[in-house]
Write a structure and sequence with these properties.
The complex is a heterodimer. Chain A is of the alpha+beta class. Chain A has a single domain, classed as OB fold (Dihydrolipoamide Acetyltransferase, E2P), CATH 2.40.50.140. In chain A, 22% of the residues lie in helices and 35% in strands. In chain A, strand 3 and strand 4 form a beta hairpin. Chain A is elongated. In chain B, helix 1 runs antiparallel to helix 6, helix 2 packs antiparallel against helix 5 and helix 15 packs parallel to helix 17. The longest helix of chain B is centred in the middle third of the chain and has 32 residues. Chain B is flat. The relative contact order of chain B is 0.08. The chains are: A alpha+beta, B alpha+beta. Chains A and B meet through helix 1, strand 1 and strand 8 of A and helix 14, strand 3 and helix 15 of B. Strand 1 of chain A pairs antiparallel with strand 3 of chain B.
């Protein structure tokens, strides 16, 4: 019997740790969507989401403490109201990811990330591919 | 010409690696193995790798833009220092540097091999196989000597692997990566990481060799102890430099974001930290032999995983990973290493491992076990958080990111337990620790820790985790100093001289203790700077000022200047105390624009004894300026702690040269 316990106890400990980690992980996942997905598939809720796309040129305006902008993936676009720190590299035409809540008409964000990578990008900035993950936190 | 020399030297290194693998293997099996048998392939490997590296540097220095790599990573106006560093600034070049470091490692391992040394020869054969992979990668999908055959404007759109074609060159290259040009540390950071990554090849090769040969005992550990510690120290230094660079240069207002790229370097470091500790248990008590094999396999595999994650483009997008060709190859190599090592382990580990029983959990080795369990859980948690989004996306499910709270929730309790174990473990005897032996050694340090915690509360800190970290961190440091005093009190001579002799007497132990002091400081720095930070964004008109926390910031004027390789736009600010009277410093956060995008923003940081004032531009300065202002308490403690930890590792690795005999400190 002792031999069994020698393996069972560590197995239970490891299992327990894994469960704790996975529960913690699942409660801290933030799902990423494109404007098209938000407009067509995602039901508005209070869940925190990430929205990625390109800032539409000429769409950016400041309204008191907020920044109003439109983000597009080339097909659909979405109005974003951003309250929070604006990263230094923020610009029209830039690829951004905002994090916040989608209410069905406006995306209310408090965190903005600017795409930052170490690979070279051509000057004729290719249309923003919303798959980008590696970001500069702001 | 350069392309031809470069490619030929890579091919030479490929051939030498192959020959080394076979020759060393064969020699380890003959009746009287001779070390001289592998001299030639090792020399050729070293020659090939160094010439390849030199050729790449030469190509960059002579502005040979027929080489696609040079055209993509340098230009005629790039400053010399960044040209030199450009040789490892992008994927192909970084693998050339990697290869050169690896060849040097093989050379040093080969030097330690003597006649009749079957274990060493088998290990050399393993390093030969690892070299074969890296140089094979260089010779195929990541050839840095591809020549450009077709131009479209400034950039090369088609290139040839064979160097004998008629090459075309753009008028000028696109220049070095702006992030590299923005700070020289970005040039130092990768070589440090590579020495760390590559260094683990030595203990890994000896572990595999020990399993293949079924050699019991700790010979493989003893012989690679120094490699493990040096690799650990360099990897830690590389991570520290990366964090410092992220903080001082990148300017998003932090030093660690649990970004996959950062995690990729942290993972092998965590596994290596566990390995270094459990290796001590095996060398001293003969336990944990199988576990040590698992840990070094894990460490080596995680270095490959880290390279795969950062170099294949997988974290930028799962779908871009097949574009470069390097990704699938690295993934394949990772699979071979993991599956091959584990199969070998399953098949042979019973030959090398024996398991003396743990006498009591209340002992030095018991606490080492707790340390290992915690570090493994930590690594597992980081691995899970890093890979989960990638696997989910690769399966075509949702795209997700793992929020920082996930990591914080794991890290904070782990830090508590680790610090506690660090303080108690260092003064706990092996085998069995009686309470009346351990308690007197930790009572006073614990009191010091509690006093420090009370002072922190009196200073107005209300964050519970921060206070706990201060208590435990001070406890660890006090334990180390008390032990140093206790041991040096037994020696004659002045206090300082006696302490110095104690440190030299057992550098392995004391190197570890120095590293513990560093890690304790690091923990305090991290807790203070992340738990007590103040962040604000202010808009200031020219000539006006704004108050943030205890400071008054005035915007004097915008500034702009042209440097040879960049245009600098910034704001001149004056930092004053809260009443806007006494001047503390002049600060100038800027944007730097290089010949190629993106522009890089550089914050201005004023480091003080109690806190850093960090100011970064949020807009281009003009009539007014928007600033991100952040106050980070005790940042210097964080950097100092990191450096001390690295220094402790170096002390443990090098100082042993002075004294071979082991004077025990575990009374």
């Amino acid at each position: 019997m002792r031999r069994y316990w020698k393996f069972l106890i560590p197995a239970f400990v490891i299992l327990g740790i894994l469960v704790v980690l996975l529960v913690n992980l699942s409660s801290n996942l933030v799902y990423f969507h494109t404007p098209t997905e938000l407009n067509t598939e995602v039901t508005p809720s209070t869940e925190r989401l990430r929205l990625g796309g390109q800032v539409v040129a000429g769409s950016v305006e400041e309204d008191r403490e907020s920044l109003i902008l439109t983000v597009t993936d080339g097909r659909e676009s979405l109005l974003v109201q951003h309250d929070g720190v604006v990263p230094q590299l923020f610009a029209e035409g830039q690829g951004v990811i905002v994090e916040g809540v989608w209410d069905g008409t406006t995306f209310h964000s408090d965190t903005m990330l600017i795409r930052h990578d170490e690979q070279y990008r051509t000057e004729d900035n290719v249309i923003y591919d919303s798959d980008e993950h590696q970001l500069e936190e702001s | 010409m350069i392309a031809t020399i470069g490619l030929l030297s890579i091919l030479l290194a490929v051939a030498a690696s192959g020959v080394l693998t076979v020759r060393a293997w064969a020699e380890s099996r003959v009746p009287e193995p001779r070390a001289s048998a592998i001299r030639l392939p090792v020399a050729m490997l070293l020659l090939g790798s160094l010439v390849a590296f030199a050729a790449l540097e030469l190509g960059i220095l002579t502005d040979d833009f027929t080489l696609e790599y040079v055209a993509d990573n340098s230009s005629t106006t790039t400053p010399l220092i960044f040209k030199l560093a450009g040789a490892w600034a992008a994927l192909e070049g970084s693998i050339v540097l990697w290869g050169a470091v690896l060849a040097l490692l093989v050379y040093f391992v080969a030097r330690s091999v003597t006649d009749g040394d079957r274990l060493g020869l088998t290990a050399l054969s393993v390093t030969g196989a690892v070299s074969l992979f890296w140089f094979g990668l260089m010779a195929t999908v990541a050839n840095p000597f591809e020549v450009c055959t077709e131009l479209a404007g400034r950039s090369c759109v088609d290139s040839s692997w064979l160097p004998f074609v008629s090459a075309v060159a753009p008028a000028d290259g696109v220049g070095a990566n702006p992030l590299l040009q923005n700070h020289i540390l970005m040039a130092v950071h990768p070589p440090m990481l590579y020495v760390g990554y590559v260094g683990f090849t030595a203990p890994f090769a000896f572990a595999i060799a020990a399993m293949i040969r079924g050699e019991q005992g700790s010979v493989w550990l003893e012989r690679t102890r120094r490699w493990s510690v040096i690799a650990w120290a360099f990897l830690g230094f590389g991570i520290l430099l990366g964090a410092w660079w992220s903080y001082e240069v990148l300017g998003w207002g932090g030093y660690w974001a649990w970004d996959p790229v950062e995690n990729a370097a942290l993972l092998p470091w965590l596994a290596a930290t566990a390995f270094i500790h459990s290796a001590v248990v095996q060398r001293r008590r003969g336990m944990l032999q199988a576990w040590n094999l698992i840990l070094i396999i894990a460490t080596f595999s995680l270095t490959i995983l880290g390279t795969f994650l950062t170099r294949s483009g997988t974290i930028i997008s799962v779908h871009s990973f097949t574009q470069s060709g390097v990704g699938p190859v690295l993934l394949g190599f990772l699979m071979v290493v993991v599956i091959g090592s584990l199969l070998l382990f399953a098949w042979r580990s019973h030959l090398v491992s024996s398991a003396p029983r743990l006498d009591s959990v209340a002992s030095r080795e018991g606490i080492f076990l707790i340390n290992n369990l915690i570090l493994t859980v930590f690594a597992l948690a980081v691995l899970l958080g890093t890979l989960y989004p990638i696997v989910l996306e690769a399966m075509g499910r949702a795209r997700v990111s793992v929020g920082t709270p996930y990591y914080n929730r794991v890290t904070i309790p782990i830090a508590f337990v680790l610090l506690l174990a660090m303080g108690i473990g260092a003064v706990t005897p092996y085998r069995y620790a009686r309470r009346d032996v351990v308690w007197p050694r930790i009572a006073a340090p614990l009191a010091v820790g509690l006093v420090a915690g009370a002072l922190t509360v009196l200073l107005g800190v209300s964050s519970v985790p921060v206070v706990i970290i201060v208590v435990l961190g001070t406890f660890v440091i006090a334990t180390v100093f008390k032990e140093l005093l206790r041991q040096s009190a037994k020696l004659d001579g002045g206090r300082v001289g006696a302490a110095g002799r104690v440190l030299r007497r057992d550098p392995g132990y004391w190197g570890g203790q120095i590293a513990h002091v560093g890690v304790a400081l690091l923990a305090v720095g991290i807790a203070a700077s992340s738990g007590l930070a103040v962040r604000d964004q202010v808009r200031i008109p020219a000539g006006g000022s704004a108050t943030v926390d205890d400071y008054c910031i005035s915007y004097e004027s915008p500034t702009s200047r042209v440097e040879p390789n960049r245009t600098v736009t910034g704001a001149v600010l004056t930092l004053r105390a809260a009443d806007c009277s006494s001047e503390l410093a002049t600060m100038e956060p800027v944007f730097n624009r290089y010949t190629r995008p993106p522009a890089v923003a550089t914050p201005a940081v004023r480091t003080g004894i109690t806190e850093d004032v960090f100011v970064a531009l949020a807009t281009v300065p003009g009539e007014d300026v928007v600033l991100d202002v952040m106050i980070f308490p005790l940042m210097w403690v964080l950097w100092a702690g990191g450096l001390i930890a690295v220094g402790g590792g170096m002390w443990g690795a090098y100082a042993r040269k002075r004294t071979r005999e082991r004077v025990t400190a575990d009374v």
